[in-house]
From TrEMBL:
Domain HTH lysR-type: 1-58
Pfam families: HTH_1 (PF00126), LysR_substrate (PF03466)
The keyword DNA damage is annotated on this UniProt entry: no
InterPro entries, per database record: HTH-type_LysR_regulators (IPR050950), LysR_HTH_N (IPR000847), LysR_subst-bd (IPR005119), WH-like_DNA-bd_sf (IPR036388), WH_DNA-bd_sf (IPR036390)
Family membership: Belongs to the LysR transcriptional regulatory family.
Entry annotated with the keyword DNA-binding: yes
Keywords, comma-separated and alphabetical: DNA-binding, Transcription, Transcription regulation
Superkingdom in the source lineage: Bacteria
Name used for this protein in its record: Transcriptional regulator
GO MF annotation list: DNA binding; DNA-binding transcription factor activity
GO cellular component: cytosol
Length: 293
């Protein structure tokens, strides 16, 4: 399976047309068709459903599309790393970060590093800890900012002093908005939007204790932005970290912390025994020196 053919495949998948794909790739239509048929023969599956006006991906084609995008991203990243000059720190650092107020710490480190190495660029990916770990393991992300609980035995890491505070996002005119904090029994029979990560769900369930069975989880989320919109539209209460949603006079939202208090730590991780680019290596050194001092 050649990189060139994977690029052909992704172009046709995106355009849903061999004719348009051939035009973009500047090759003839018969040549492109032959390459795709050879790819299907090599894999032993049909990748396309060929219709009169367009072609669509089969289930196998959808799987190959995801894998091909990951492969080409990794090839592009590798080429950039080898293209860096020995006497000048350049290139890109790939960073994944969960939704956490600790991003301010990482952002300040990037700002300081940028002053030292202005040629370095940063590629940021947002996701939950499970998403980021998967991309680190595949080599698509160099450094991750993760919220606990999280299994980090495969990674080197620095733990941040910051603690995230759990609580409930709600409308300002909701019955619970008058309270200073939220106790487990306050959410009994209430519609709740909970985090999607299983390990975090366990933490939340332990905090609720026997009251957990009495709440009505109507939805889960991996990033809080859309969940906050659901809260604003009156669909329920979202369990989340403090300070992640902009709360001001223009919004109808407020945040109330849990009581007893529930806190979560944050870590910056990178894969053990990994050979990084010069830029990423320098940045990891800066993280260690700044946070372990």
């Amino acid at each position: 399976m050649e990189i060139r053919v994977l690029k052909y495949f992704l172009t046709v998948a995106r355009e849903e047309s061999i004719t348009k794909g051939a035009e973009i790739l500047h090759i003839t239509q018969p040549t492109l068709s032959r390459q795709l048929m050879q790819l299907e023969e090599e894999l032993g599956v049909e990748l396309f459903t060929r219709g009169k006006s367009k072609i669509t991906l089969t289930d196998e084609g959808m799987l190959l599309r995801r894998r091909a995008e990951e492969i080409l991203d990794l090839v592009d990243k590798t080429e950039r790393e080898f293209g860096e000059q020995d006497n000048l720190i350049t290139g890109q650092i790939f960073i994944g970060a969960g939704e956490t107020n600790a991003m301010h710490v990482l952002a300040n480190l990037i700002k300081e590093f940028n002053k030292e190495y202005p040629q370095v660029k940063y590629n940021l990916y947002s996701g939950n800890a499970d998403d980021i770990k998967e991309k680190i393991d595949k080599g698509l992300i160099d450094i991750g900012l993760l919220t606990e609980p999280v299994n980090i035995e495969k990674y080197d890491f620095v733990r941040l002093p910051n603690k995230e505070i759990w609580g409930v996002l709600m409308q300002k005119d909701s019955p619970l908005a008058k309270k200073e904090n939220i106790k487990p029994e306050d959410l009994s029979n209430m519609a709740v939007i909970n985090t999607k990560r299983p390990m975090v769900q366990n933490e939340i369930e332990n905090w609720f204790g026997t009251q957990y069975e009495k709440i009505n989880v109507i939805a889960t989320y991996n990033l809080i932005y859309n969940a906050a919109i659901m809260v604003e539209e009156g669909l329920g209460y979202a369990i989340c970290f403090e300070k992640l949603v902009n709360i001001n006079n223009e919004t109808n939202l407020c945040f109330k912390p849990f009581y007893p208090k529930l806190e979560t730590g944050t870590v910056i991780v990178w894969k053990k025994h990994q050979v990084f680019s010069a830029a990423t290596t320098k940045f990891i050194e800066k993280i260690i020196n700044a946070l372990k001092a």
